[in-house]
Design brief:
By secondary structure, this protein is of the alpha+beta class. The chain is about 40% helix and about 20% strand. The structure holds alpha-D-galactopyranose.
Length: about 400
């Protein structure tokens, strides 16, 4: 829906009157996978797929949630925001509002209508986009009353806590940070230990290149996936290393340092996950350098190495992601491709020559469907701004 259609849909549902619009973005990740809870460097960007929220305040302390794409409706009192994680829809919004309220934001009654262009279960972080659309909307209302500026990093951290503490998904900070802090045309080299980022311009057009998001259409649900178990493997490896040397985060170790302490890791899984983490962190640094130096061939090669590590060491790809990445890498004009996000389905990303894009999509779809039976969807990866009020 465009903005006007969303306003009309809101008024049709909740009655005529003023409507404010907010949105937040989905994220891609260039490289740096599954290390945002190990103090690693990751390299995400916000993209022009969004979760939008149309909103009007109410004076009776009731929150109403509705969506343009499903029939679920939620009604909740502002003094009863806790404990709704098992709703079929609406848990991310209530989780975000609940955590914000605990942190001192004034959460008032409101009618909200959500409209999304981010695919769900697609590895583009639809949940973070919902949390930050909710967060920027509620923070705008709350901060207008108190006259305080919005702290976007604080909102990102609350979004992560909504996932961890409310929804039970032990994700890192990458998705919420990208959604809150994204800037048009810029990727973010995010230090997940300090929760600070350096923006890096991504101007692929000048080299005749583009990024293409490839949705395997094999849905994934990270709450029920091995995501938390993989994170637990990383934490166990960290605990094993701590028995022989002090260490705050796994990714504080360089590859050379890791090689001297890895014998302390007690399980094979711990060793595999930690090896992925340490070398993925290094790959992120190398990819950033390659991008800054304009070495796009080198950048593409790092993406391919990242996928292999996710497949063989972290074991979070699966047949569909492997098939779509293999199909992509077999095409002419492709510099690199890799799975992206949580894994076990969802999306991958490819870096390729722009002039080959149409032929690429056709050939990848054919090869991928022949192998898996799923029909993929492709999206352009236009790097865009993150959470904001839409002011027209
Ligand atoms: C999911 C999580 C993120 C991150 C990625 C993998 O998207 O929400 O915190 O761990 O997986 O890099």
């Amino acid at each position: 829906m465009n903005n006007e259609e969303l306003r009309s849909a809101f008024c049709a549902l909740y009655g005529p009157g003023p409507v404010r619009l907010f949105k937040s973005a989905a994220r891609i990740n260039l490289i740096g996978e599954h290390i945002d809870f190990s103090g690693g460097l990751v390299f995400p960007a916000a993209v022009a797929l969004r979760s939008a929220c149309a909103l009007r305040e109410r004076s009776d302390g009731l929150i109403h949630l509705a969506s343009t794409s499903c029939t679920h409706r939620v009604e909740c009192r502002v003094d009863d925001l806790d404990g709704h994680s098992d709703l079929p829809w609406g848990g991310y919004q209530l989780g975000m509002l609940c955590l914000m309220q605990r942190e001192g934001y004034t959460i008032t009654g409101m009618d909200m209508l959500f409209d999304e262009t981010v695919p769900h279960g697609g590895g583009l972080s639809a949940s973070a986009a919902i949390e930050l659309a909710t967060g920027i909307a509620a923070a705008t209302l709350s901060n207008e009353k108190s006259g305080t500026p919005i702290d976007r990093v604080a909102l990102a951290k609350l979004g992560q806590r909504a996932e961890n503490e409310y929804m039970g998904m032990n994700c890192g900070i990458m998705d919420q940070f990208a959604s809150a802090m994204g800037k048009k045309g810029q990727a973010m080299l995010l230090d997940t230990a300090a929760v600070t980022c350096e923006y890096a311009p991504v101007d692929l057009e000048k080299d005749g290149l583009c990024l293409c998001i490839m949705n395997t259409n094999k849905p994934h649900n990270l709450v029920n996936s091995p995501y938390n178990a993989r994170r637990a493997d990383c934490e166990a490896a960290l605990a094993d290393i701590r028995a022989i040397r002090p260490l705050e985060h796994l990714c504080d170790l360089s590859p050379a340092e890791f090689e001297t302490v890895k014998h302390a890791i007690k399980t094979e899984n711990g060793l595999k996950r930690a090896t992925h983490a340490i070398y993925e962190n290094q790959r992120t640094k190398d990819a950033y350098q390659a991008l800054c130096a304009g070495d796009m061939q080198g950048f593409g090669k790092i993406l391919v190495e990242g996928h292999a590590s996710m497949r063989d060491l972290y074991e979070a790809t699966g047949p569909e992601l492997d098939a779509i990445v293999d199909a992509a890498l077999a095409q002419e004009g492709v510099l690199g491709a890799r799975m992206m996000g949580g894994g076990y389905g969802g999306c991958a990303i490819a870096l390729l020559r722009e002039e080959k894009l149409e032929a690429f999509k056709e050939a990848v779809a054919k090869a991928y469907t022949a192998k898996t039976g799923f029909v993929p969807i492709f999206y352009p990866a236009h790097i865009d701004d993150g959470a904001m009020e839409i002011v027209e």
